[in-house]
Amino acid sequence: MKRWSQHRVRALFRHHGPNSLIFRRRLAMVGGAISIGLVALLFAGIADRANHAFLALYAEHRYVPLLLTPLGFVLIVWATRRYAPDARGSGIPQVIAGSGDPDGAACSLISIRTVAIKAILTFASLLCGGSTGREGPTVQIAAALMALWHRAARVEMRTSMIIAGGAAGVAAAFNTPLAGIAFAIEELAAAYEQRMALLVMTAILISGVIALGLHGDYLYFGAIDASMKVQTAIFVAPVAGILGGLAGGWFSRLLLGATFAQTGPIATLRARPLLFALLCGIVVAVVGVWTGLTWGPGYLPAHAMIVGVEAPFWFGIAKFATTTATAIAGLPGGIFAPSLAVGAGFGNMLRWFFPGDPSGAVVLLGMVAYFTGVVRAPLTAVFILTEATGSRGLMFPMMAAALIADQASQWVCREKLYHGLARAFSPKVAED
Questions:
Q1: Are 192 and 251 in a shared domain?
Q2: Residue 380, Cα to own-chain centre: how many angstroms?
Q3: Fewer beta carbons below 10 Å: N end or C end of the chain?
Q4: How far is CA 189 from CA 32, 100, 161, 270, in A?
Q5: Domain that holds residue 266
Q6: Beta-bridge mates of residue 133
Q7: Domain for residue 13, yes or no?
């Protein structure tokens, strides 16, 4: 047994004490994870209030969005381009692009200034009825908080910590720790190592404990506990996977095409971003006023369809249109929640073809298939919906639908959406 000599105590203090690199790295990681849990809750609360405020305004003044939404889109796009170009869009592509140069990203893509403006403009997008969500921005904010703590602790920012921060953001946004880990594997990390796995799980654990301690245990969509017999799933899962994957792939192809188009009408409109934002805002406003259901992230309609409430057959198509228009306009905001809502609408369509099967289970298969088709991350999709609804009995049918959807999506769009959008934030693209 080693003796605790004065020399050994000094050596341990030097390597693990408050001034040591190991201690400062641990402090930065723990402090960042705690901050992510706190800020994710605050951001979610304000975002939900912004969405509810718009819905209340719409309920009292039905036609106000015809003016408010297009003008709001124009002002938000102008402010984004003027004050924080790196704040546009989801936020996940910025984290993917920033993982290649963590120190550089901390001063641009995931700087505190960028994410602060992004948060404000995301609230503004919800206040004017944009079909957007808070989950993508939460990922970018989480990575920025992790970078801030590393800078404060005078520790070099590493790729692993950007990934850990982003994964913790996903987990805190949905209260889905397994989905956060899966998201880190499938989307954020090109090479996933054992050391990185430990960092990701630690960050998710700490931020999750903080969020649960303040908000309490909850399921994002409530306790659904849907299930489906094997003989039924054999027919429903492949149909949902193929059709949902194709639909999600088309969304990805439209968004990537609008982002990188060099010729044609879209390229011409992209050269006039404020006019493009105005036209997109008009689409969102007209469809929203006509349907009354497509505003914001779409949580309420999605939840209603999951629990079996009858919904219009066309909801998925209408929500697809408003989500696409919001995304290609360049507003800050995520596509996670709106994609789940579109998927619920798609699952609602499937109920018409499988009327005798459990409606909630069919809707969830449609959701996981479409969401997988968009983000091409089947594990993340399955874990999000399993943890967000408590439907563990549906995990295997959902996994089957997700894997089929992942393949079907590639028939339409070969490139993964977030990795494709990340090219817009790489130094090479920026120079061009």
A1: no
A2: 11
A3: N
A4: 19, 10, 11, 31
A5: 230-431
A6: 334
A7: no
Please indicate, yes or no, whether residues 242 and 266 belong to a single structural domain of this protein.
Answer: yes
What is the Cβ-side half-sphere exposure of residue 229, based on CA atoms within 13 angstroms? 5
C-alpha dist (Å) from residue 331 to 102, 261, 360: 24, 18, 32
Which secondary-structure segment (H or E) carries 261? Answer: none
Task: Note the pLDDT of residue 282.
Answer: 96
Q: What is the pLDDT of residue 430?
A: 41
Residue 24 Cα to chain centre, angstroms: 30
DSSP-derived 3-state class of residue 331 = coil
SS (H, E, C) 379-401: HHHHHHHHHHHCCHHHHHHHHHH
Asked whether residue 95 falls in the same domain as residue 183, the answer is: yes
Number of H helices, E strands in the chain: 21, 0
Integer CA distances (angstroms), 315 to 48, 194, 221, in order: 21, 43, 18
Residue holding tokens 């011409």?
Answer: 268
Number of domains, the chain: 2
Structure letter (DSSP) for residue 84: -
Phi and psi at residue 421, to the nearest 5°: -65, -30
DSSP class of residue 181?
H
Whole-number Å distance between alpha carbons of 158 and 120: 27
Q: How far apart are the first and last CA of the chain?
A: 63
Q: What is the pLDDT of residues 188-216, one digit of tens each?
A: 765 455 456 667 777 777 787 777 666 66
pLDDT, position 230: 82
